[in-house]
Amino acid sequence: MAHLRGVPELGREPAFEDEPWSLPTPVHALVFASLGVLSTMAALQLWSAMEMADQPLLWWSGRALGFLAYVALWMSMLFGSLVSSGGAAGLVSRKWVMDFHQEWTLAAVIATVLHVVVLVTHEESHVTPWAAIIPFASQTLTIPVALGTIGGLGLAVLAISSWLRARVPYTAWRALHTISFGVMSLALLHAILVGTDSETPAATWLYIGTATALTGVMVFRVALALLPTRRGAL
């Protein structure tokens, strides 16, 4: 059966070095520079909004961290899909793509933890510590908050499995990572349902753009996986 060079066969472990979280300095610089730009843009936007509304700083910080967590998770999913496609069929270095995937996952975990801590600290959010870790425990916006809680727990599972990558069989690790699509979907639904900015044009286009781009990458990944089988059948 013919196989497309640069794309890992289904069920076979990709041939990149298994050294999770050992990332080169350029990757650190690019990722954290991107986070810095996003943080600055969010801070400027929030500062402008704070001048026109009577809301505590914690409330605005929680919203900004929520957006950062969502974008970081989306970037992690994007690069994770490119890892599965063999570095986009060999167009880019698979190791660099893997490094970016791991780095953005770490950024998503940090932003999510800070997002939760800020909202729990802020009394007006009505999010209790129990509601932050136990689904459906929130008395306010029970289902939307539960979606975020489940998504956060799923993200924690994915991050831990990445840290333990060398100790987890590849088939089990691959099966476990299928929940990443559910985590991303839960994060999107949580953001739309509970976010006070969901109806603004910027947030609307952010959600539409990220969902569309990620869907396109996933379709591309599936097409690459099926292409060798189709060629072999000719």
Features of this protein?
disordered N terminus; 234 residues; mainly alpha; disordered C terminus
Could you describe the 3D structure shown?
The chain has nine helices and no strands. By secondary structure, the protein is an all-alpha fold. The chain has one domain. The longest helix has 33 residues. The N terminus and C terminus are likely disordered.
Number of domains: 1
Question: In terms of structural class, how would the helical and strand content be classed?
Answer: mainly alpha
- Tell me the radius of gyration: 19 Å
Number of strands: 0
Total count of helical runs of at least 4 residues? 9
What general outline do the C-alpha atoms trace?
globular
Question: What's the layout of helices and strands?
Answer:
Layout: H1 25-50, H2 57-84, H3 86-90, H4 94-121, H5 129-133, H6 142-163, H7 170-176, H8 179-194, H9 201-233
